[in-house]
Structure formats: structure tokens, C-alpha cells
Amino acid sequence: MNTMPTMTIPNFSLSPRIDQVGIEERASRFTKRSIKTAAKIEGLNLVLSMIDLTTLEGKDTAGKVKQLCYKAMHLNDAYEGLPNVAAICVYPTLVKVAKNALKGSGINVAAVATAFPSGQAPKSVKIADTKFAVRQGADEIDMVISRGKFLNGDYNFVFDEIAEIKEACGEAHLKVILETGELNTLDNVRRASDIAMHAGADFIKTSTGKISPAATLPVTLVMLEAIRDYYYKTGKMIGMKPAGGIAKAKLALHYLVMVKETMGDAWMTPAWFRFGASSLANDVLMQLTKQKTGNYQSLNYFSLD
Amino acid sequence: MKTKRKAAVKANKTNSSNGSMVDISLKFDEGWSYSPAPESTDHVSIKERYGLFIGGKFVKPALGKYFATINPATEKKISEVANASSADVDKAVKAARKAFGPWSSLPARERGKYVYRISRMMQEKARELAVIESMDGGKAIREARDIDIPLAAAHFFYYAGWADKLDYAFPNKKPTPLGVAGQIIPWNFPLLMAAWKIAPAIAAGNTVVLKSAETTPLTSMKLAEIIQEAGLPDGVVNIITGAGDTGAALVNHPDIDKIAFTGSTGVGKIIQNAIAGTDKKVTLELGGKAANIILDDAPLDQAVEGIINGIYFNQGHVCCAGSRLFVQEDVADTVIRKLKDRMQTLIVGDPLDKNTDIGAINSKEQLATINRYIKIGKNEGADFYQSKCKIPNKGYWCPPTLFLNVSQSHRIAQEEIFGPVLAVQTFRTVDEVIEKANNTPYGLSAGIWTDKGSKIFNITAKLNAGVIWANTYNKFDPTSPFGGYKESGFGREGGLPGLQAYLNLG
Q: Which residue of B has its CA nearest to A36?
């Protein structure tokens, strides 16, 4: 790493400005790409392999999580050659259950920590939350930033908090959730992305899924452009995870097109791009089956876990 | 996960012999790629041969001469169209003159109904029109489908609305139509240009003789079929095909009241010469060499989109193309790096493929012109860069092209190339860029990119260009006037000024 350019912490209030109209126009261009035949099948398989299969409900139980883990390893056993999803995403208290259920599968367990989803807890509690999840065996930590502090202009607080959580993660991979639905402007999304990356995020992630709007193409594009600039500046690759609101295979393919044309081929793997989604997998399976058989199957042919 | 990540970072590094250099770059051509997605052509009907549309009927040309129109992406003949002689032009002008009286005295509301009908029928046949536009001219189907055809229909729709409101459009005036308009259009936006010309003219009560461009006659023939089907009174719109001679015959015809021309500055000058001393009114929409100006506080990624859209839209066959890029020096390296990355993702090829960004160059002649300028640019010593895309074996193609380190003294920065070739210059201060942007015989359009509204107002007020886009580029709307200064012509098309160009305000 000693050959990398040296990095200085920038003044985040000077993050590049974003033109919303321009971003929306570019984002809509990705949706005009026509993905057919072989490209569609390859793309859909890639989408499956990038999914963080998620359950984040107050009513989650060990039983529910075990069922979801089985689904993660057996998306559709009648259809040969399907990849596994990338990870299961659960609350910290269920990490151990998931970890046991997924043993030997190569599927990661991600835990949402830091007083998810609001992040409204003292830093000590957030750090304890993170350490607990890591001790339970989480491979990846999805943290939330303090949006109140961010909107208050206290960027140093947000930066320091991320850096401390990163330290608490140890070997675990850190995904930083910006909760873009609460940041209101794309300028803020860009600034929060810059803060998260400089503070040590391995991934940046759009949303908790608890706030609407969650992931959108324009927001994701702003974050990808921030990742691209950071890569050119430091040589470090950062991953991207849009989460929430991506339920259809077609939309997921639009995201892939965006990643491909914005970041290039290096990012087109689960190591660098993930979908946080609960119902996307079944729609992708339905599309894949349609490509194979020529017909759409009833929803009842796809397991709900 | 952790190890994978390190491996991927390493994969992007290549150490030079001394081990101190890091190559950080993005790769766009190694992984997932799009399968062909061709738009089908089986719903399209093209006749083997088209006559001239005169007096509401397709008639044979007086001399019986026809010429082929080819698909520039395949070099195959699609159809053939009549070569109108001066006798045919005379016949068309007579038909228009005969129709003028009844048409101009028709209740305005009735006139409006016809124009609305044409608009609706174009919308109904939009898919067929888009495919033919793409086949005949080489433009990407995405652009024909999303821009050319909807905008053409929108122009008829917009001017239809004015037909019965002329007295209110120009308060305290008594607007009356001019008579017979001779209209000559270029090959870059065939149907759209026909709509720009015909819609305001007939809505205002004029009758027209329109000559389409030599290499792209087919959609105007389809428009003639639509006009026939719409039941427009015979002779109100006459559409003829031919080359320069036909255009000259139209311009010189004594019974023409108004000439509307869109095309090259060279031909525009000939037309202005030809009509000197006559009563003919004229509007000319000619060439351009627009400055697209990127200030250092601009949203750079969006500005790069604007650069792409400014010069590579429609293969650069756009009179208002942003063909001179001015980047402020402190962000020039970043902008050029982003621009080169973006150019790698542009797909060049089969115009009928829905994923194609850049289609075929319109004609062999135009490709030769572009290549001549590329050679000039190289000889002038500018840094040449072209995207490394695959291009088909047959047809006329030019990959997206950049020249860096250009100065105002380079010919590639002075002359209109009309192709996907961008001349990039840097500047230090706002005053400097205003001076350079205006230092051209042209004055059609310009673009300005900055985060600061006050800079937009300052710069746009000082640029001599008819259309200036701020933080966007190549946006068109029927309600917005379009036209140039200096050698880019005079007169406006679109909006109320576009209507006024077809009226006496008495």
C-alpha cells in the first residue's frame, strides 16, 4: 500500500456539488438500455449473487431467520446452476442463529448495528452494539450515520463516529448507511458519501429500508460517482449497496447497467456491489424461469421465506 | 471478503519497472455486455419508389428521373425517390398558389383541426416513422424514437393551437399569411425539420413547397402520406425531392413569397444572394461552432454528460452541437479523465439496436469531410483521442473523437465539422472564455456549466449566440425560439417568433 498516493482529509463542506436535473437525466438513460437473451440471464444470475437477503422486523425470531437462511442456500433447487445470495442481513441478536444455519455455505452474515434504524443512541451504546454483533460472528456490520448531527453541520462528529465503529468492527466489513431519504438533497448525499469513505467505510449504503424514499437510481448514481472520485484519488475501491425499494428484476438490471457504465467491470461482483432486498430474489427467479420456459409461472411456484 | 477485496485492488494496479507508479483506471470492456436488441422492421412499409407529392397526389417527375436513397449503416438501397426538375418545382408552386386562397380564408379553427390531425397521426405512426428515420439517416433508434418523432409531433400540436389565436398572439396587429413558402431542409433531423417548417407555415394560413434533403427523403414521403390521409386540402403542403438544383429552382421561382432554409452557411449565402432585390422574405438557420463552457465550480459529472450530449448526440450532425469545449484549467485534467471514461461506454454500431448510442455517419461524403478534419487536426498537432469501440465492417462510421490542447488558431476549432469530433481548449478566467467563445463567425448556440446562478446571468448576457443552455445542452421545445446570430443565420423557428416568421403583421 506504500505506493498509493497519500490521502488528506478534505473539507467536507466543499464536497462537489450535484445537479439534480442532470443526475435524474443520466439515471433515466440507464433504464433505456435493453437487456435481452444471454445478457439478461447473465445479469439476473449476477443480481442473485449480489443480494443481501434481509429480514429486519421487530417480530423476527430464530425460526424466521433459519427459514430465510435455508432460502439463501436453496433459492430454487429445481433450477440448476443458480448462485447463492451474498449475505443474510439480520439484527445483532439473531446473528448467531444465522451463522449456525449458514455454516459451510460461504454466505456471509451481516448485522445492522449502531441503534439501527434511527441511530439515536449514545456512541458508547453504538460501539457496544457493534462489538456484540461482531462477537456473535457477524462478517459484515451495517451501521447508520447520525443524520441529525449531519444535518446540523456537525460533520466531524459523524466522521469520528464512523471511524470509531470501524475500529470496533475489527475484521468485520463495515457498510455505512447514509439513510438518503432523510438527507433531502443530492448535495448532502454526496457529502455524506465522502465523509463515510474517508472515515473508513468498506461499503456505502443508501438506506435502512425503514424510511421512504429508500434506494433510487439517482441517489445511487451520486454515491457511485463519489466512489469513483475516491478511487481515482486514493486507489481504494469502495463497495456500494442500494437497499430498500428494489423489488423487481427489471429495476435490478437497471442498477447493474448503472454500475457497469459508471464504475466499469471491476465493481460488477458481490465483493463490490450488493442489493439490500427482501423480495427481489423471487422476482429474479420468476424472470429466470421465464427465460428458460418461455412462460411466467404463478407466484405460488416461488417459495416465500 | 477481505482477501477478495485486496486482490481486486491489486488487479487494478500495474507497477512500472521502478515499482513506484500506480495505474488507477476503470475497465469497461471486460465483463458483462449487452446482447443485441434490434428494433424490428417488419411493421414498416416503404414503397420501392416514391413520386413527388404535388397537389395532394403522388405524381411522376416531369423528366422521369429518380435517385436511390441508401441506408448508411449497410450501404444498401432502401428505396428510390424522384429527382424534381424546375418544371416539377413550377408545378408544385402553382399547386401551392392555387391552394393558398381557399386555405388562408378557411375559418382558422378548421385550419387548426387539420394541423392537430397531422400531429395525432404522427403519434399513431411514431414507431414506423422512428424506424424509417433511423434506416434512412443512420441515427440511433433511441434518439429517433425518444427525440425526433415526439418533438416533430409536438411542433404540429403546438402550432395547431395558435391557428385560431393569431389575433391574440400579436396584440393590436392584424396578422395575415405571407402566401407560398419555399422550404428547404437538411439531412440531420429530416422529419423534425419538416415539422419545424410546415407546422407554423400552414397554421398561419400559408401554403408550402418543401424540399427534403437528398440523402434523407423517406420520412418526408411518409409525412406526405399522413397529410394525404389527414385529408388536408390538396396543394396546401407539397413535398418534393431532389438535390441542390431542385433547391435552387425553388429559391429562384418568381411566385415564392418566403424562403425558409436550414443547412450550411455556404448555401445560405448563395440563397441570400439569389433573392437580393426580390420581395421574398427569408429565414436562414445555418451552421454553428458552439462553445460549451465548463467552469471550475460546475457539477463535473453532470457537465461531462452535457459535453457528451452536446457533441455526440446524432453523431455530431447537429448545427448547435457543442463542438468547442472550454474547460477551466484547474479542473481540466479531471474533466478530461471523466470524459474519456464516459466515451468508453458509448456504444457505436447498428442504428436500429436499442442500445446504440452513436449510429452511422449520414453519408459517404460527410464521412469524408469528417475524416478530412480529423487529418487536419492531427496535422495541426492537437492531441488526438478516439474511443476504442468496435465498428461494423460495412457502412459509414466515426468513433467518438476528441482533440486536446487545441487553440483558437486551429482550424478544427474554427470550422464546422458536423461530426462526432470535439475540440477541447482550456481557459483561466471568465472574461477570457467569453472573448474566445465569441471569437467565431458563427453564433448559433452555447452552453455554460456552473453551480452559481450569478455567473450564468453574467456570461449568457455577454455571449453572442441565439440559444444558450445553462447546466444542460441540446434541449428543444416547440415553445422555445431557435436561431442564430452572425453567420449562423437569422430569423427564429419555434415559439411565437417562429409563427411571426410566416405572417405579415401589417
A: B35
Residue-wise burial string across B450-483, b where 16 or more C-beta atoms lie within 10 A, e elsewhere? bbeeebbeebeeebbbbbbbbbbbbebebeebbb
Region A250-267 average pLDDT: 98
Contacts of B158 (CB under 8 A, 6+ apart): B199, B478, B479
**Same domain membership, residue B117 and residue B180:** yes
Claim to verify: residue B388 and residue B317 sit in the same structural domain: yes
User: Could you read off the pLDDT of B272-306 as tens digits, one per residue?
Assistant: 999 999 999 999 999 999 999 999 999 999 999 99
Span between the terminal Cα atoms of chain B, in Å: 79
Q: What is the pLDDT of residues B202-213, one digit of tens each?
A: 999 999 999 999
Domains in chain A, CATH or no CATH each: 22-288 (3.20.20.70)
Q: Are residues B297 and B282 in the same domain?
A: no
Do B140 and B356 meet the contact criterion of CB atoms below 8 Å apart? yes
ipTM: 0.95
Chain-centre distance of CA B234, in angstroms? 29
Asked if the C-beta of A202 comes within 8 angstroms of chain B's C-beta atoms, the answer is: yes
Checking if the pLDDT of B9 tops 80, the result is no
Nearest to A266 among B2, B8, B20 (CB): B8
> The CATH number of the domain where B341 resides is what?
3.40.309.10
Residue A4 pLDDT = 54
Per-residue pLDDT tens over the stretch B212-227: 999 999 999 999 999 9
Cβ pair A22:B299 closer than 8 A = yes
- For the domain that residue B180 is a member of, what is the CATH number? 3.40.605.10
- Give how far B307 is from chain A: nearest CA, Å: 12
Whether the CB of B2 is below 8 Å from some CB of chain A: the reply is yes
Size of interface A-B (CB pairs under 8 A): 119
For residue B433, the enclosing domain spans 291-470
Which pLDDT score is estimated for B1?
Answer: 36
Cβ contacts of B306 on chain A, cutoff 8 Å? 22
CA-based end-to-end distance of chain A: 43
Please judge whether A32 and B24 are an interchain contact, meaning their C-beta atoms are less than 8 angstroms apart: no
How many structural domains is chain B composed of? Answer: 2
Same domain assignment for residues B226 and B322: no
Catalytic residue among B80, B133, B285, B416: B285
